[in-house]
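Subgroup meeting minutes
Present: P.N., E.W., G.H.
Scribe: E.W.

1. P.N. recapped why we're keeping a running log of single-chain structure predictions: easier to compare across weeks, and new members can see raw inputs and outputs side by side.
2. G.H. added today's entry (469 aa).
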Amino acid sequence: MFRWRLPQAVCVLSACVCLVLAYEDDFEVNYADTYYNEITDGDTPEPTASSSPCNSPDLTKWDKMFSMLENSQMRENMLLQYADDIIKVEMGSLRGEMLRFVAQYGGSCGVAVETAGRRMALQLEGRLRETLERLRSRDQTSASAAAGNSVGNSNHLETMLQQLLSASRAQASRLSKLETNCFSSPGAGLRMNTKTASQLPEAAGAGPREQEVTSHEVALEGVLAALQQTRTELGEVLRSSRQRYLPAGCEMALLFPMRSRRIYTSVIPDVPLSISSFTVCMWVKPTVVTNKTVLFSYGNRRNPYEIQLLLGQTSALFTIGGEAHLVEARGVVSPGGTSDWIHLCGTWSSEQGLASLWAGGKKVAGTPGVAEGHVLPDGGSLQLGQERNGCCPVSPSSGSGVAGFEGGFDPKMAFVGKMTGVNMWDRVLSGEEISKLALREGQGCDQRGNIVAWGVTEMVPHGGAQFIN
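Output recorded in log:
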């Protein structure tokens, strides 16, 4: 049977070979046909056999242009994709850095805020306790001499300070609670901008924490505002308490209630005033200040203006031997008067004729050549709150003078207010000594002059002038 199949297979194989050879011949012939698909600017040239597209090694300018456009579009797409990837990576890295910063430094920032608030509360409480102790000690010292009205005012002031102390403790408690709630989780003390954080990738989960941080910060701002208000109220209470008490440890003061030619205080020095140098100091609290308000005045029949310590509208003035020798310092008092005590000193030496004016422990004016070589004459009269422009001195024994002496006082020059710590030395005090006398919380009243000594030298109030505690 195989012998019959073999001749048939040979015939079939021969037929296939013949067909392949015939197809190859047709392909070569068909491939030889020319196709023209060329774009030209001018006339169409005659077709040639060598202009087939498959065999052309050169591209036309249109092909090059299309290739350039395709390449440009591909590059643009690649750059956009690359930029998008860079932005995503950088934003993710930025978000990670911010979260690490919050976790690392947020707690320390919150602790710093809490420490500052607690320090403020402790300082406020310490000042309140110190003020209360001072008030109690002063009330106990002056209890025998104080009237019922002053005791009632002191009790009212102490009640106000107790309320402020309670408020301070309440604020400290609130700060402690906020510390527990706000700074327990790391990074909770740092504020983040909600709008900026919401633009970061995966920022949706950070919303509740940011709202919680914002609410805590609002609470802290409220506590800070309350502490500032408490501090303001404490300052007002301290100022009012200082106005009720005398400065520099003084225990009494002279009160000049109104302007009158009959209201003044005469001073009788312990030693004669025949001196060539001196220092006069005092604490004053004027209620009303005119163009010429007399604080301290010494004179005799020949010259009623040997020494004058005056106040102007806003100035302090000091004269020796008359108004021709004037030392003036501006801006010492506020216009119309002041609500606080002012310490004033005037110094003069005839050797060099140097006169100086001191306010608040600081030298505010100085003039050389003032009454150089002059000696203050003895036998004159010394007044507080008025100037002696009459004819005759006051007699120390009887306390009265020649008729018409009081009528010589000018009510427009009268001092209105309080005066304490009046002292006079027969030498020029140093700047350090004057600065110590001017310390409000010091003991300047314990330093007394050797010519006029406050609390020792006889001072006689006239008219409505009186000593007060």
